[in-house]
Structures are given as structure tokens and as C-alpha cells.
Protein: NADH-cytochrome b5 reductase
Amino acid sequence: MAAFLRRLATAAPALRYNALCGQSRIESSKFRFPIGTITAVTAGFSYMFYASTSNLVHLAPNCEEDGQKVALKPDKWIEFELQDVARVSHNTNLYRFSFDPSEKLGVDVASCIVTRAPIDKDEQGEVKYVARSYTPISDPEAKGYFDLLIKIYPQGKMTQHFAKLKPGDKLEVKGPIRKLKYSPNMKKHIGMIAGGTGITPMLQVIDAIAKNQDDITQVSLIFANVSADDILLKEKLDKLAACHPNIKVFYTVSNPPRGWKGGKGHVSKDMIIKCLPSPGNDALILVCGPPGMMKHICGPKNKDFTQGELGGLLKDLGYSKDMVFKF
Structure:
């Protein structure tokens, strides 16, 4: 992580310290990157396709709020130039893409973008693409750039494309895809269950609540990972919890290290009962993670990516379909 921050500092000379909760911020004329807001990607949990067509589903309208121009288009692939790339860990890189500095990207909470890359040609010579959805890590209000944190998988067709990108290369992007339209105080208590890179949409919502003094929503997060080393953004989450009494975080890992004080094993009924809001009209449970986890916690989404029937632990514990949202 230290090497990663030094790399960013090379591109952005001024490192300023924000005394509010000890949050660091890197600033320059090109970069305004809150270190504490680094998040992960949805790792393609949403959907993928191989096709020569550019048609996509679940795209939100292109909104230009308050007359501000946005860079994304819901019905057109737009090329964004890679400005810089920095290694975060042995298998994770930070990618910053740039665009017109007078524009916002055009995403809201909680939404993601779709990226695509050519992988082959069919028998007719038409280009075949692989596409994945990712959640930008940058503030939705940021102008002129967006950041993606990508975990590179050896067999991942899209992430292998990312691994080959160099500054100056272009990435095709479309969107946004709106998941949950969050509004302040929409529920009294929001519970969250995330696994691995499924933390991304959760952090979008948490950040929105944390930076709005008028939003008094209670947030309780259960974050499940294989090991303690796999916990993404732990420092960020711990700072949020320390600075905001309405935000609580509980970690559970399958392979706990010696002295581990968090949960052990997969998310259980007991963890949900102790950590999350009870079923009720003022409660909402958000869930995001790999397919096996989704099935265990709430049941899978439908093949067309609609919510599907509620199942798993949440159904067993008495939650209803309208109290749960599956990312």
C-alpha cells in the first residue's frame, strides 16, 4: 500500500491531510483522490456477454443534472483514455481514466458502469466482445476522471485485458447501470452483507450517508472473506465506523489468523440476528457477493438479473422480499 501511495504522489505532488477523522487526500490540478475512498469492483457479478452487438440491458437514462454535462452515454460505447495505473497488491491494480474536465462521469448511488473488450472474431469475421460491470471508486461528483480498482484473475477475460492496458490506451465504457436508487433516510436502518469485492456498492451507500450530516440512517455491515488478508478497504471501513456512531462493521473470515477477534466461518443466522436490523418496514438488507454466497444468504437473482424470489438465511429469519435488495 505504501508503494501505491508513493506512485500516486508522483503524479499528484501535493499530499494534504484532512484533519476530519484523519483522512488523507492527494490533490493536484489533475488528481483529487481521497485515499480513504479507495474501493473495489463488482468483479463481474452483475453479468457478462459475448456478442458483436452493442445492445445492453438495465441501462439508466443519461441524466444531465442541473445542466452539468456527463461523460457516459447509455446507448453508446465511449472510449476513455487510461491516464495512469498503479499496483495496489500482488493481484490488484488501480486504473485512472480521464475525460473532459468540465464533465462528471454520470453515475449515482448505487450504480455501476459496463466495460467491454474485443476477444475474438466469429465465423463471419464479426468482433466478439467480453463485457463486465464495475463500480467506479471515485466520488460521483468528481469531474474529468474516474477510478477503477481491478483484481486480476488468471482466467478472467476482462481482467486480463485490464492487465495489458498501458497509459494512453483506451477503454470502451457504457452506462450507467442503476442498481439501487439510494435517497437519504429512505430507511431507518440498513443492514449489509458483503463478500469479497461485493463491498463496492455497500461502500457507495456508506460513503453517501457518511458525508451527509442530515442523513441519520443506521448502517450495519457484515463483511465476509476467506482470510484477514483478503479484507478489502479494512482501514477505510474502520475509520468510517470510528468517526460515525451510526456505522458499524463486523468482519468474518473462513481462515482466521491467530488472535483474530472477529467472526469465524461463513455468514450465519446468529451473525445476522446479532449484527443486522430485525425484519420490519424501516429495515432494508443489501446483499452482494459471489453466487454461492448469494444463494446461501438470500437466494440467487433471476437470469434476467431481476431480484428473483427471496431464499436462504434471510427468508428463514423472517425477512420479506421487499426488505432485501440483491446487487
